Amino acid sequence: MGVKNVISHIFIIAWKDLMELFRNRMALAMLVLMPIFMMAMAGFIFPSNTSMSNISIALANEDEGYGNYSASSIFINVLEEINNSTEMMVLTNASSFDEVRNMIQRGDVEGGIVITRNFTLNLMTGEQGSIIIITDQSNPQLSIALQTGLKAVFDQMGTWLAQKNVETFPGVNATNSLAVVKPYHVETKGAIPGTFNYFDFMAPGLMAMTVMMSVMTGLPAAISHEREIGTLDGMMVAPIRRLGIILGKTFAQTVRGLLQGILILILAIALFGVVIHGNILLIFALLFLGVFSFVGLGVVITSFAKDQETAMMVMMTLMFPMLFLSGVFFPIQQMPWYMQGISKFLPLTYVSTALRKVMVLGADLSAISLEVTVLIGFGAVMTLIALPVFRKAMTR
Amino acid sequence: MHAIEVNNLTKRFGTLAAVDHVSFSVREGEIFGLLGPNGAGKTTIIRMLSTLTRPTEGTASVGGYDVVKEDGKVRELIGLVSEKIILYDRLTAKENLWFFGRLYNIPGELLNKKIDELLRLVKLTKWKNSQVGTFSTGMRQRMNVIRAMLNMPEVLFLDEPTLGLDPQSSVEIREFIRKINRENKVTIILTTHIMVEADMLCDRIGIIDYGKIVALDTSTNLKKLVSGADSTILELEIPNLTTDMIHSIRSLKCVSSVSQNNSTCIKVNANGDDAFDTIIDAIRANKRKIISVKNLEPTLEDVFLQITGHEVRDKADQKIKMHRHHMAKPRVR
Ligand SMILES: Nc1ncnc2c1ncn2[C@@H]1O[C@H](COP(=O)(O)OP(=O)(O)O)[C@@H](O)[C@H]1O
Ligand SMILES: [Mg+2]
Between A177 and which of A163, A209, B308, B331 could a Cys-Cys bridge form, CB atoms 3.0 to 4.6 Å apart? Predict the structure, then answer.
């Protein structure tokens, strides 16, 4: 039994599994729908800033001013100025808090800003002026976006007021007053020119995750299912290497996962404007390597589970925490230290990190050598464990 | 040389000895039958011999190769038709055979010829490009058998090859089994719980019960175990047959069992020189008419009864009851 035979067995088993998949309409529909749902869901749960624009907002100014001075009009000026450049809101005037509330309830506007009655008075007498944001409670994303927007307005307004104050000091004039009030300036620039949104961050992780889910659920399902209906015996009595069976099945699941990965990539590019900076072949190579690193674990679980149902359940239980700990949806750096520790032991972490480096930063192989080494090591160790376990389990 | 040699082969699942120190051998070119009720351990023996399950104890060899130490060599020599049909519903007849043929490294051209030849043999040529999922049970089983023949095995294992088939398909499969045995000189070991099937097909039969082989010989010799002694098997037709009547026959000392075939017909197994007279007298004493008496040749069923002390069907019922009992236990705990 030479290497040539093993390779031919891998291909014939993969061919068989894929034929079964492609002739199963239901499975095929799921294959296509899963990535679409994933992308749609990601878009719904995590809207990027660019998706927040032209929100209709009612603005009510109940402020009565102080003498002939009105802080609220300054606020409104600054708000309009900033809004002109970001186009986040479409402002409508309203007379009172109650009217704003009615407008929201009628659905005329999505949210409202109310400047309270004693806004200027409070500011002048050393108290805090208050502004109320009214939103539809059912949309927490909106209120976060509004708060962020208003914070920028207050920031700028504070600076502007302070500037006006210091201009009366000797030696300070309109040109240098800004430098006196705000002597520093922070600007964020990415390593790659162009703007980024959340999908740039998420698309690589989502691809890694899909391929992993395909293999992790597909492999135990494929093996346990065949064991239950008895067809696995047909392969087990043939004079072929057990490794050939595992790799053949893995190969089929990998193709399935890659098809979904490609679909995600296309969706990300077409619908969410994700730009790929790195080498596309390197991306596929990484997905392959990722699969290699997951497979051993999948085989071990399959070997221990006595039927398809158990295998799937164990798989799901393991998979979900893994998804959230591997930096697919949130940057690992945001996690508490102990979770960061756990994430270091998950192969998905390395796949999604490496993929992100290549896709977003245009990194080449040398830049991701650490991730690649870890993945190869992980895969090799798991496969070495999996083979004897599988062989033993199958001749129980 | 023997095609199969089995020595003290044992398989335990937990505390249950599914196969219990079984020894036998199968000659080359023979059709050897393992006959026994459900749960007797037939499938487990087949699985150990075909390298799918590891024995707990004992040894077995197929074609001179040890089934554990030289499992690779054994696999090259054997074909397996297991209880569950080994075919993929979504593949066509041809694709199924192609897949399994390639697992045996049969070169493409030869394999194509082989597939056509085998399909013709079981009259499925017309369905070559149809998906197996659309086939009838009989067609599927024919496919299943030729699938196991692809690599021209020296030893073919058939585990309940007619299970779930209609009578017509069963006959076809049996004829096919006999044909490949004769024409291809394949050694066949088959299991069945159908007495007639074992009787018809097998050169020698091992009767297996509770994991043990309790008798092993040709069908003719096995029957002599019953008829060779002083045993009598009578079929009696008695109008207005009552349970009391059956009870009183059963209580006769010479009678070993009574079974009722229909409302007027009973079958009586008895021993002793004067068994015939005793039974007739007993019926007469009850003032019943006897319409007919037939002196029957013993069947394998009678052999099984004589050796194990219970009927094949009894055992099956008992097993179901035992199973229910076991399932009820954890609820109590
Ligand atoms: N994998 C297994 N685990 C536990 N018990 C088993 C297993 N396979 C078979 N058995 C038990 O072993 C006994 C023999 O089963 P089997 O060989 O299938 O009998 P047969 O084929 O004669 O009907 C039965 O009691 C069955 O329940
Ligand atoms: Mg069986």
Answer: A163
- Please check whether residue A234 touches B, CB under 8 A: yes
DSSP label at A110?
A: S
- Compare A103 and B27 and report the one with higher pLDDT: B27
Residues of B whose CB is below 8 A from A229:
84
CB nearest to A229's CB, from B50, B84, B102: B84
Total number of domains in chain A: 2
If asked whether residues B202 and B54 sit together in one domain, one would say yes
Indicate yes or no: CB of B86 within 8 angstroms of CB of A5: no
Residue B80 dihedral angles phi and psi, to the nearest 5°? -130, 125
Burial pattern B261-272, b for ≥16 Cβ within 10 A else e, equals: eeeebbbbbbeb
The sheet carrying B16-27 orders its strands as: B16-27, B2-13, B57-62, B65-66
CB contact under 8 A, B102 and A8: yes
What's this model's pTM, rounded to 2 decimal places?
0.74
Domain of A134, CATH number, reads: 3.40.1710.10
Pairing of strands B255-262, B265-271: antiparallel
Across residues A247-260, what is the average pLDDT?
A: 86
The reply to whether B162 and B280 lie within a common domain is: no
Residue A204 has what pLDDT?
84
* Structural domain that includes position B55: 2-218
To the nearest whole number, what is the mean pLDDT of chain B? 87
pLDDT of residue A190: 56
Chain A residues closer than 8 Å to B83 by CB: 230
Nearest residue in B to A241, CA atom: B72
Q: State pLDDT tens for residues B150-178.
A: 999 999 999 999 998 999 999 999 999 99
Contacts of B99 in chain A (CB under 8 A): 12, 15-16
Residue B319 belongs to a domain: no
- Distance from Cα A16 to the centre of ligand 2, integer Å: 28
Check if B40 has its Cβ closer than 6 Å to any atom of ligand 1: yes
Q: What is the mean pLDDT of residues B53-80?
A: 95
Check whether A299 has a pLDDT greater than 50: yes
Rounded CA-CA distance B97/B100 in Å is 5
Of residues A376, A327, A334, A46, the one with CA closest to residue A209:
A327
CB-defined contacts A:B, below 8 A: 68
